TrEMBL record:
<protein>
    <submittedName>
        <fullName>TetR family transcriptional regulator</fullName>
    </submittedName>
</protein>
<dbReference type="Pfam" id="PF00440">
    <property type="entry name" value="TetR_N"/>
</dbReference>
<dbReference type="InterPro" id="IPR001647">
    <property type="entry name" value="HTH_TetR"/>
</dbReference>
<feature type="DNA-binding region" description="H-T-H motif">
    <location>
        <begin position="40"/>
        <end position="59"/>
    </location>
</feature>
<dbReference type="InterPro" id="IPR009057">
    <property type="entry name" value="Homeodomain-like_sf"/>
</dbReference>
<dbReference type="InterPro" id="IPR050624">
    <property type="entry name" value="HTH-type_Tx_Regulator"/>
</dbReference>
<dbReference type="GO" id="GO:0003677">
    <property type="term" value="F:DNA binding"/>
</dbReference>
<keyword id="KW-0238">DNA-binding</keyword>
<feature type="domain" description="HTH tetR-type">
    <location>
        <begin position="17"/>
        <end position="77"/>
    </location>
</feature>
Length: 201
């Protein structure tokens, strides 16, 4: 016998921002439980108080929702890093320490990020989105380092930072998706030495 889920609408009036936040929170919960590829719009709608029509007013598909979450998380991280790097006189050392240490971290945002990286292998929209996000990280890091080290050539530094973040993401994938965490932890010193060599060469 087929059982239908009947949703009882609540009439508490929410702002656009509150509805968007509700959708993103619900989507993140479902993505982390089922993975991006196995999540459909019905899964997310059923985690919210919105009607189907109200839900589709904001997002047309799961990719749109994922990108909205990704941009929000990335912008928050960039703002945090900007403050952290700016408050430290040894900017290069701070960047290197942050990257080397954060490779091992496991948190919700990282799992969401790795889902998207996997999709980027098959979907050019994901590849383009991740490219734009990496540009934001590169811009932030270059500008802060140049402010503290104005003698460094900006274009050469940009190339190094771009390469550094590309390496970093490969290390994150290997460490978190290929059971390589222990060997990375044992050799963390060499990671830091590698990152410093790239930046100071």
């Amino acid at each position: 016998m087929r059982t239908e889920v009947i949703k009882i609408e609540t009439y508490t009036r929410k702002s656009r921002e509150e509805r968007l936040e509700e959708i993103k929170q619900a989507a993140q919960k479902v993505f982390l439980r089922k993975g991006f590829k196995d999540t459909n719009m019905e899964d997310i709608i059923n985690e919210t108080t919105l009607s189907k029509g109200g839900f589709y007013y904001y997002f047309k598909n799961t990719k749109e929702i994922y990108f909205a979450i990704l941009e929000e998380k990335s912008d928050n991280t960039i703002a945090y890093l900007g403050q952290m790097f700016a408050d430290n006189q040894d900017t290069i050392g701070e960047v290197v320490d942050y990257l080397a240490e954060s490779i091992f971290e496991d948190f919700a945002e990282r799992r969401l990020f790795l889902m998207g990286l996997y999709e980027s292998y098959y979907d050019n929209d994901f590849m383009e989105k991740f490219g734009l996000i990496q540009e934001k990280y590169v811009d932030l890091t270059v500008n802060i380092i140049i402010e503290k080290h104005p003698d460094m050539g900006k274009e050469k530094l940009r190339e190094k930072i771009n390469f550094l973040y590309t390496l970093y993401h490969n290390f994150v994938i290997n460490c978190n998706m290929m059971a390589g965490k222990n060997i990375y932890k044992r050799n963390k010193k060499y990671l830091k030495d590698l990152f410093i060599d790239i930046l100071r060469d």
